[in-house]
Each structure stands twice: as structure tokens, then as C-alpha cells.
Amino acid sequence: MSLVPPRPILVTRPEEPGRLLTTALIEHGADALWLPAFDLAPAPDFSTVRSALATLSTFDLAIFVSPAAVRATAVLLNGPWPVATVIGAAGHATADAVRARLRVRDNVRIVAPAEDDEGGSEALLRSLDDAGIGVKRALILRAASGRDWLGDRLAERGAQVEAVAVYDRRAHALTEQERARLMQMRAQPIDSVFSSSEAVGSVQEMMPLVIWEVLQQGTAVASHTRIARRLADAGFGNVTVAPLRAESILAVLGATDGPQ
Known about the structure:
Blueprint: E1 2-4, E2 9-11, H1 15-27, E3 32-34, E4 38-42, H2 46-54, E5 61-64, H3 67-76, E6 86-89, H4 92-101, E7 110-111, H5 121-130, E8 137-142, H6 148-156, E9 160-165, E10 167-171, H7 176-185, E11 191-194, H8 197-206, H9 209-217, E12 219-222, H10 225-233, E13 238-241, H11 246-252, E14 256-258
Parallel strand pairs: 2-3, 2-11, 5-6, 5-8, 6-7, 8-9, 11-12, 12-13
Antiparallel strand pairs: 1-14, 4-10
């Protein structure tokens, strides 16, 4: 038997994690559409990135904000990761990408939110505290913006914080095929999945008003309470927090057993 959700699901998570999540939902019988909130692009300034990566060993901590940040860094990184530089990962998927993509030796320390934590900047900061990581210099590897909260908290603790854009992201523009698919789905409320607060505004801007209103009538699944608050502020009446795994999403959306 497989879990079948009662309504269509819109997945807004960008890049490979969003595509794979959508595929997993479809394999469970969901009527799911992948519509990334952002399209990812190369770093806006490769020379700045290379300069920062060349001095990795001078940082106590380097933080990856997403799997996309890991993949972008892996392409530009020359040589193995310095042993003395602790790696911070903002979520479980990011930590998995670090282990899969980077040349990290066994004695390099990787700190990520606990398995039972929802992930994000707050969770990573708690994990750094639990691990007793003292930070004098921190490097945040991110898009052109984002994770300001984490950088601010580290700076308040006396750390020198540098943020480098290892990739860029641009608001996705609806194709005619995607628009037509959305219009087909709007006969009933559409459930949705969000992986960042910034994605809420991006999706609202790209959507025809009639589709946005249908989204607001469905259940929005957020990967973090901060994102859930942003969705509530945007007019979503039913918001829930769950790990961004197909089984977890289907469970909170009230999926029922159906034929495989």
C-alpha cells in the first residue's frame, strides 16, 4: 500500500533537493508539481570566492547554508578541506551534501542540527554551542543574500564574520506549460511545500492571483517554524512544520492508504 494525499501538492524547494522530493511524492501517488521558487546561477564574483577559499585554514568555522552552497563550493575548491576549519551545515541535507561532495578527511569536524531538530540557523547555532565550538573567524558560504541572522548572532559573540556568495539565485519565471498545469490544478485547494522564508515572497510574485488564492486555501508545509510564521503572515490559514521528506509531508497532509 502507498500513502495517497487528497489534494495536489506544489513543491517550491529549488534545485536537486526539490526535484527529488517531487519525484518521491509522485512515486507515492501524489499529484505533485515541482515549481522552484528560485533558479540557481553561478557565483556573481568568482575571484572573491576563490580568494576566500584560498584562506579557508584561517577560519575556525565555515558554514554551508544549503546543498547548493556545497555543490558550488566543491567545483571551486582546490585541495582538501583544512583539518582545523570546522564545517557547519544548516540542515541534514546540507550535511549529507558535504560528505558526498567535498574532499573531507575523517578528522574534519562537521556540525549540523540534531536528527530530531528541524534545522535552520537557530538549530545550527544550538548544535555549535552543544559541541563547544569557539569561533573567532567564521565564513558563511551562501547565495548573494540570506542567513543574516546567523552571521549577526556570531558577530554578537565576538566573531569576525565574512559572507561569500558561492552561487546566486533568481526568482523563477513561470513558463506557459507551468502556468497551464497550475490552472488545471486549481479546481481544489493546492497544498504546498516551502523550504525558505524568502521563497514565500518569490512564489507570490510569480503566481497569478487566482492561483495564489488557491494556495492560501490549502495546507502549507514548512521546514522550519520561521518559515511557518512567514506563511501565516502571507495569508495561509493552515500551516504545519515537518521534515522535507515525502513520508513526513504525506503524513501531515492526511494522506491515506491507496493502491500502489
